[in-house]
Design a protein that fits this description.
The chain is α+β, with helices and mostly antiparallel strands and about 170 residues long. About 50% of the residues lie in helices and about 20% in strands. It has a two-stranded antiparallel ribbon with strand order 1-2. Strands 3-4 form a two-stranded antiparallel sheet. Strand 3 and strand 4 form a beta hairpin. Helix 3 packs across helix 6 and helix 4 packs antiparallel against helix 5. It is globular and about 55 Å long. Keywords: Membrane, Transmembrane, Transmembrane helix.
């Protein structure tokens, strides 16, 4: 099955093709310009940027080194209503553990009270958070997910810079 290069949803039929990428629709294609720009970045620039951010200060606590991409999962249930989801965290290991522990506690206390989905999603969230807390990404080098996130952020800032330069006649001069 093909998936959208921007939103990662599965595309059953059709989609929009451009420069070797496949998108759900024209909206994802417009947003996916950043993905195409990221793919055109030289590998050396990607690795250098990821290493720089990996060794830099944590965006949340300013602790240096070991910055990576972490996931935290939560479930909240209230009788017939169950809300579940994930947080993607770009931070140091300590800040990630705090958020994962917080979401673990939230799910443990508030996740079970929905029927039937609270009883299904809560154990999954607890297991996923427990696994993430016990087995973190490699602390020596950035994970592949972190590197991809850094490249997408660089491409987004470059796209914004290009858009600003197009809109600002003074910047062109």
């Amino acid at each position: 099955m093909a998936s959208c290069a921007y939103c990662k949803k599965t595309i059953l039929l059709g989609g929009v093709h451009q420069e070797g990428f496949r998108f759900c629709n024209k909206d994802c294609l417009a947003q996916g310009q950043v993905v195409m720009l990221a793919a055109s970045m030289p590998e050396a620039d990607r690795v250098r940027a990821a290493q720089t951010l990996f060794r830099g200060p944590c965006p949340q606590c300013d602790k240096r080194g070991g910055i990576d991409l972490y996931k935290s999962h939560y479930v909240m249930s209230f009788v017939l209503f169950t809300r579940h989801g994930s947080h993607t965290l770009l931070c140091c290991r300590t800040c990630a553990l705090k958020k994962q522990g917080s979401d673990f506690g939230l799910s443990l206390l508030a996740g079970w009270w929905g029927i039937p989905f609270g009883l299904i999603f809560t154990p999954l969230a607890l297991l996923r958070n427990g696994y993430a807390m016990l087995f973190p990404p490699n602390r020596v080098e950035p994970s592949a997910a972190f590197q991809q996130e850094v490249v997408l952020r660089l491409a987004a800032s470059e796209a914004e810079r290009r858009l600003t330069a197009q809109d600002n006649p003074i910047a062109k001069a």
